[in-house]
Design brief:
Layout: H1 2-18, H2 24-39, H3 55-63, H4 68-81, H5 90-103, H6 111-119
Length: 125
């Protein structure tokens, strides 16, 4: 979510610069501020609950309806189930998917989407 917002803002800045609406100095200052928000989202106006203390949890939080309890359940299931080199191993991935499914029963959740999000997080590698 933050990445999409940052991309949209960056596109707007580039377009303004093309139209000469910004001086080069203003342009660089806005790029610097945008980069800071992307690399340190907790300082860039995006506030997360205290329990969303890793990038992986924040990614899940942003993409799964900002449900703190759900994210905590998913994160716990992944961390306690994952094994070394799980990404790309059908059986290890299925084991994690089953653990997430079991932990989140009662939620309307796309397990495939959760697994894609999990695979993209360095915290879970």
């Amino acid at each position: 979510m933050i990445e999409r917002q940052a991309q949209r803002l960056l596109d707007e800045l580039i377009e303004q610069r093309r139209q000469q609406a910004l001086s080069y100095q203003e342009y660089l200052e806005q790029i610097r501020a945008l980069a800071s928000k992307v690399t340190q989202p907790e300082q860039g106006g995006a506030s997360y609950p205290a329990t969303m203390d890793t990038q992986a949890k924040r990614a899940l939080y942003d993409n799964l309806g900002q449900d703190e309890v759900l994210v905590t359940k998913i994160d716990t299931a992944i961390r306690y189930t994952k094994k070394a080199d799980w990404i790309g191993d059908l059986f290890k991935e299925r084991e994690i998917a089953n653990a997430v499914r079991e932990e989140t029963s009662g939620y309307d959740l796309d397990i495939k989407q959760v697994m894609e999000l999990a695979k993209a997080q360095k915290d879970y590698h």
